[in-house]
Amino acid sequence: MAISQIIDEIITILKEDPSKTKFYNGMDPNTIITYENAYNIILPKSYKEFLEWSNGGMILEMRETFYIDMLDFEPDGPKWSSFYFYPLEDMIDKYYELDLNNWMFDNKSYNSYPVIPICRMPGWGEEFFFIISQKGLKNESPVFAKLLDNKKEICFEVAKDFESFLSWYAKHKGFPPIKEMSQKKVLNKFIIKNNIIEIAQKQSTREEDIIQATAWLKLFPNDDFYYCKRGNAYTYIKKAKEALADYNKAIELKSNDAFYYYCRGGLLLEYGSQRKALIDMDVSVKLEPDNLLYITGRADAFYQLGRLQNALEDCNRVLEIDGRYELALYTRKSVYQDLGEHKKAQADENILEDIYNGK
Questions:
Q1: Separation CA 283–CA 341 (nearest Å)
Q2: What top-level class would CATH report for the domain 206-356?
């Protein structure tokens, strides 16, 4: 059955008793794509079609008038007694909570968190249905259930895809018999079979980072960190003009962040504006005087301006704290070579070789 036919069934239920249904207006398809790009996920086609029809909602257990007396002190009462499809904004909040708690991944690192909650069950919100991001999947993700008495390893499949899940939901007029479902198809097997963890851990390209940051900034236009993140991606792919604009915006939004000055200084150094770079590197050190990365960055700016003694002072300062700090060793080696102190340059080269060789 097509998703449009299932939606028609829900509309019929809506018409039968409007006081027992509450579905919100649908979303613009471009907005859905923006959320996908911003959070680095891919939603199943059938779920996106549902969101275009309705951005979340529910069939109520009782008529809406039943809840009137409790709404003042318990405004979420209707949600707690219903199977509630998360509006996209609520879904993202729940998604962020799961991501923050590293749910399903334990201590593994990842680039793209794949668990997407779509519908909460009656209760306090700890039981819910979820899908897996479509990244790397050939077919639409099944819908899985997470119950209070389930460990994440045995969360189980309740429908082969979102379309089947919505049909099940409509058939039971908003209250599918979850406890009666077979729990044989467990999440852990699906994760292993489809290499979900490996896909989630795959490093994004710089072009993908730019797409993600651009979408994020559409949603959160004053997020200074994402301007810097996009600027770093532009720097990597040699788009200096775009990178500089992003660094400038990040600093405009947060003028006391040392990292932003360091990043802009690095770009300016790369493209030959050594004096401007030194100003930025100096600001970063003044903001965080003990940061070895920033001191080394300033040393590099001094070196490129030919101020060898200043560069040497900064390198020595870093290497007194960490004698194997590679960036400072590189710069100091170059300084020594330019000063004609070849034995000292060779000594730094030897340390670098030991580091490369794991000694």
A1: 30
A2: mainly alpha
- The rounded distance, in Å, linking the Cα atoms of 280 and 297 is 10
Q: What is the dihedral of CA 8, 12, 13, 16, to 10 degrees?
A: 170
Task: Summarize pLDDT for 68-118 with one digit per residue, the tens.
Answer: 555 454 555 666 778 999 999 999 999 999 988 888 777 667 788 999 999
- The span from the CA of 223 to the CA of 5, in Å, is 41
197-216 per-position pLDDT tens digit: 899 989 999 999 999 999 99
Q: Please name which of 224, 333, 289 lies closest in space to residue 281, comparing C-alpha atoms.
A: 289
Q: How would you classify residue 102: left for phi > 0, otherwise alpha for psi between -120 and 50, otherwise beta? A: left
Helices marked H in the chain: 3-16, 29-39, 45-53, 77-80, 88-100, 162-171, 187-193, 196-201, 206-219, 224-236, 240-253, 258-270, 274-287, 292-304, 308-321, 326-339, 342-356
Domain layout of the chain by residue ranges: 3-201, 206-356
Query: For domain 3-201, is the CATH number 3.10.350.10?
Result: no
Nearest to 163 by CA among 198, 118, 121, 120: 118
Pick from 273, 276, 278: which is nearest to 295 by CA?
278
pLDDT in tens, 294-331: 999 999 999 999 999 999 999 999 999 999 999 999 99
Residues 155, 153: Cα–Cα separation, whole Å: 6
Digit-coded pLDDT (tens) for 26-79:
999 999 999 999 999 999 999 999 999 999 998 887 655 555 555 454 555 666
Mean pLDDT (the chain, rounded): 91
Q: In the β-sheet with 115-120, what is the strand arrangement from edge to edge?
A: 21-23, 57-59, 84-85, 115-120, 128-132, 143-146, 156-159
pTM: predicted TM-score of the whole model, two decimal places: 0.87
Of residues 1, 24, 47, 58, the one with CA closest to residue 143:
47
